[in-house]
Structure formats: structure tokens, C-alpha cells
Amino acid sequence: xxxxxxxxxxxxxxxxxxxxxxxxxxxxxxxxxxxxxxxxxxxxxxxxxxxxxxxxxxxxxxxxxxxxxxxxxxxxxxxxxxxxxxxxxxxxxxxxxxxxxxxxxxxxxxxxxxxxxxxxxxxxxxxxxxxxxxxxxxxxxxxxxxxxxxxxxxxxxxxxxxxxxxxxxxxxxxxxxxxxxxxxxxxxxxxxxxxxxxxxxxxxxxxxxxxxxxxxxxxxxxxxxxxxxxxxxxxxxxxxxxxxxxxxxxxxxxxxxxxxxxxxxxxxxxxxxxxxxxxxxxxxxxxxxxxxxxxxxxxxxxxxxxxxxx
Length: 310
Ligand code: NDP
What we know:
- By secondary structure, this protein is α/β, with parallel strands linked by helices.
- Helix content is 31%, strand content 18%.
- It is built from nine helices and twelve strands.
- It has helices at residues 13-23, 71-74, 91-109, 112-120, 144-155, 178-186, 208-213, 231-240, 280-295, and strands at 2-8, 27-31, 43-47, 62-65, 85-86, 136-140, 159-164, 173-177, 191-194, 218-222, 243-248, 268-270.
- The strands form two sheets. It has a seven-stranded parallel beta sheet with strand order 8-7-6-9-10-11-12, with helices on both faces. It has a five-stranded parallel beta sheet with strand order 2-1-3-4-5, covered by helices on one side.
- It starts with a strand and ends in a 15-residue tail after the last helix.
- It binds NADPH dihydro-nicotinamide-adenine-dinucleotide phosphate.
- Residues 68-69, 89, 93, 97, 141-146, 163-166, 168, 195-199, 201-202, 223-225, 249-250, 273, 275-276, 310 line the site of NADPH dihydro-nicotinamide-adenine-dinucleotide phosphate (NDP).
């Protein structure tokens, strides 16, 4: 018998139970706070699990993240070192993230922010559109999600650039890498979309330096983690006019405190960390695929790499 324990304060337990049962009927499903005998638990399926929970499972073989990023697992000070952590890599998650990236880019590209303001003043103001094939979008992060965003934006006719840690080749994408590559890319892009993992190297990467590297009036869409952007630098960029606007799904502090200046800033558009939801009926396939690989002693490509930090 293989047993999985789910612990998440926000994911729907009943949908996960049903989705896992459909994919792997022989899997015993349990949910925190009722783990049964902790010694029977083979896998912990978690999102921000209570600290110490994973350490209380003496025979757990791997942590399965209910998120593409593993920051929520690593935040547990009692996490047993050396325990494998498996990222969530799911086509539907990548597709949802790409939908949001497309929406954010088109919002600004088709001047919806301007037309909304004009509407609220009962003003019939017609602007002149930009020519999409002359307009470049830069994707920060060219992984599972970034390449999907790049493909969808490319289908719309944008010039697509992408930035990764190491050199990469992606069809239809002008690829950049390394510190110089980021500024080289930013200088050409009216829109930047961030889908990086949060690591010590990418923390605060959306800062004054990057903003100044962009053309005047550029836009930033951050759908990765709030730690990527420096709030004060975004506000300074918006208030100076160098940045035309930002679309933020993620924040340095979540929930964003009611007094934060982003809430009422006319150039800030935001959502409460909903760019990519983990839909159980799709993600359960990824979870079961990885459990089967581990049980068979096979390589797990979705393993979190502790040395790289993602
Ligand atoms: P992947 O691990 O597949 O891809 C990460 C990409 O980022 C790779 O291209 C990698 O480069 C690049 N990268 C990492 N570090 C650096 C660096 N220092 N400099 C330049 N490039 C770097 O991740 P996913 O695409 O699956 O997910 C990305 C992130 O999106 C997640 O970590 C998560 O935080 C966020 N996310 C947010 C959601 C939301 O709802 N807001 C939902 C889902 C994900 P290389 O190719 O060279 O390795």
C-alpha cells in the first residue's frame, strides 16, 4: 500500500482525493490534520504545510509540491535535509500562466488601462495602436512556464525574447542569458514578463537598474513571486513615468497589507496570486507519474535541484 498525505490551507482536498483516486486507485489518500499512523505515509503532497509536519513522517520518501516553486517547502526549518522534493510541472498550469501573461501584455498593448480611465470620465478618446510585429516582449525565465508564455505571445505576432540562466535555443525566441543578457533584452522590450523561480540570484531582480534598462514607458508583468520585484523601485519607476504600468499577481507580502501604496495606484493592476491555479484533475497526473517513477527507482526529471535553487 502506498500512502499520500496532503497538507494545504488553500487547495481543495475533496477534488485532490477524487483526482488521485481516478489516476491511481490503489493510492491511500489522507489529509492533514488526520495523518493516521505517520509511519505509514510514503509521500507528502504539500503547499505551505505546517512546519515540522514533514519531519514527523519517519518513512516519507519525497515531498510533492502543490506549486511549481518550492519556496513554501524550503521555508520549513524542520525539513529533513536530503529529502527529495518534486516540483509541479503541469501543462495546464503552464497554459494558465501563459493566458495571464497574454492578458497582461494585451491589457497594456491595447491600451485598456487608458480606455478604462477615459470611460470613468465619460470621455470618448480614441488612441492610435502600436504595430504588434514591431513590438517586443521579453520573458524572464525560459522554463516549463516561460516557454509556453513565449509560444502564445509569438502566436499573436509579437517579437519574443527570453532570458535564462544558461544559453538556450527556443524556436521563435531570441534567447539571452546571464547578467549582460538581461539588460540587452530589457533594452529592446516594451513588455517584460517575469516567470523566474525565486532564488538568491533572482530575488529583487526587478529593480531600478532593470527598469532603467527598459525603453521609456515600458510595462512589467510579474506572475512569478513577489520577491522578484522591489516595491520602492517599481513605485519610483511608475511615478517618474519611465514605467507605464505594472501588472502584479504576486507580492512581497501576501496578503498585501491594506495600507500598501500599490492598492490605489492608478498604474498598478493586481490580482491575489491567482495567475496559475493547481487544478487537481490535471496536476494529479503529474503527481502520480512522479510517484510511479520513484516507486520504480527511475529518474525523476521534475526533481527540485537544491544546488541551483529551482
Ligand atoms: P522552471 O524551473 O521550469 O524554469 C525556470 C527558468 O528560469 C529556467 O529557464 C531557468 O534558466 C531560469 N532561471 C533560473 N534562475 C535564473 C537566473 N539566475 N538567471 C536567469 N534565468 C534563470 O520553472 P517553471 O517555469 O516551472 O516556474 C517558474 C516559476 O513560476 C516558479 O518557480 C514559480 O515561482 C512561478 N509560478 C507562479 C505561479 C503563480 O500563480 N503566480 C504559478 C506557477 C508558477 P535555465 O533554463 O538556464 O535553467
